[in-house]
Design a protein that fits this description.
The protein is an alpha/beta fold. The chain is about 40% helix and about 10% strand. The protein contains five helices and four strands. Strands 2-1-3-4 form a four-stranded parallel sheet, with helices on both faces.
């Protein structure tokens, strides 16, 4: 059930190539939002164009599936100018990608830029480690951090929607 959040609210998760962290965040956030009855625009993108059109890394697909989330149908894309107007929140996985977003953001862009762990008390500015060069354990560790981050963002957006509807 829809809980009063504006359908225009949208969250875009961003990492470098859009095949590991941001697809996992997109999938985990969809599940977290759905569990709270939030109806949001959710997507992911990369700051680089390395993997355009490719699906997520097989290790990301596996770890997400192990947690009941299917991300296999996602396709990598690069951040676009319109994203800074289409989404209310653009959430980076690390400082380098946040800086990349800031450099690409149009002056009049309306999206609020942040890092994933900014929504967790005491973790503001902390990165989500890139598991790309790691093993399955690195992907599981990334999933655990991402899960905590997206749960915090879902709660934050739920609180904001409740405050706006009062």
């Amino acid at each position: 059930m829809h809980r009063g959040i504006d359908h225009k609210t949208g969250v875009l998760f961003v990492c470098l190539g859009n095949i590991c962290r941001s697809p996992m965040a997109e999938g985990a956030f969809r599940a977290a939002a759905e569990a709270r009855g939030l109806s949001l625009l959710v997507d992911s993108a990369g700051t680089a164009s390395y993997h355009l059109g490719q699906g997520p890394d097989a290790r990301a697909i596996t770890v997400a599936r192990n947690h009941g989330v299917d991300i296999a149908d996602q396709a990598a894309r690069q951040i676009e100018r319109d994203d800074f107007y289409r989404f209310t929140h653009i959430i980076a996985m690390d400082r380098a990608n946040l800086e990349g977003l800031r450099s690409k953001a149009p002056r009049d862009g309306t999206a609020r830029l942040a890092m994933l762990l900014d929504a967790i008390e005491g973790r503001r500015g902390e990165p989500v480690a890139d598991p790309y060069y790691g093993d399955a354990a690195a992907f599981e560790a990334a999933w655990q951090v991402i899960s905590r981050g997206v749960e915090a963002w879902a709660e934050k957006l739920l609180r904001e929607s409740t405050e706006q509807s009062v």
